[in-house]
Design brief:
The chain is α/β, with parallel strands linked by helices. 47% of the residues lie in helices and 11% in strands. The chain contains 12 helices and 8 strands. Helix 2 packs across helix 10, helix 4 crosses helix 5 and helix 4 crosses helix 11. The longest helix is centred in the last third of the chain and has 22 residues. The termini are far apart. 33% of the residues are buried.
Length: 317
Amino acid sequence: MKNHETTPSNVDYEIPQSTLNPAQQKVIDLLGVPRHERPEFDRDLGNRLRTELEECLRPLAETIDSIEPSHRNLYFNKHRLGKVLECEHCYMIEQSKPFRWSPALARGTVSHKAIELTVNWPRKPDPLDLVDEAIARLADSNQSISEYLRSCLDVERAELAAEANQLVVKFLESFPPIKRAWTPVTESSLRATLLGDRIVLNGKPDLTLGRTEGNVASKVIIDFKSGGSFPTHIEDLRFYALLDTLRLGIPPRMLTTYYLDSGDLHPEPMTVDLLFHATTRVVTGVTKYVEIVSGQRDPVTAPPGTCYSCAAHSQSD
């Protein structure tokens, strides 16, 4: 492969192959594509998707307006959509319980922050330095994790740092160094408003590479995951792609889930059909949520084995 011809960004540059291990080279090979092979999309695509969403969701407007004022603006991220579509009953049970942070839950947030810092780190990154800085920055932030990080026991903090360090080491070992020429953006907010701001869709992809120019799709959206794969992972990325297309009018070129524990890369080229699939999924998820929150019907329990975190079956046994 000629690296100066196939990079994941809009800007070409060379990475000496001798500096990359096979896992890192695999990422370049799978994500890179010559400029002349990057697809073009209709400039009206974003408008078509928005029209589809608005028309399908419009029947919900009156119901949304009838919900108590605190719910007038309904926010949907990948988690809310995914949980409602997976099991309505489980989602409502989870919503009724207070959320509590733990080292196991916090390690993803800390490791993602540490990976974010690698983009502009001034020297060769040391994983533990990145983790320590990530914990310090998150503890000083206004995010929900900050209180947990400031108040947790030393042993919990040490356990969290150790678990996050494992993921950061795996990232640095298996993902190629992120170059500024790739136009990297980490944890960038995407947002779309529908039905006069009644419905707000938002998301934060872990990493995007490249930028959209003209009708040519050049951007790659990447989500990093620990553990195994689940069907919702690719759906999350399609949701991000939909938001980015509503924002820019042109979709990303490729979606990729990167599994840190295994080094597996699951790329999916973007197509118009996938964007309309994501549109249908949003409509279905929002409709289900509005129906159960407004009391139009009771939440439905998913069949056993189809909800991976379901508490509903254990309560009914």
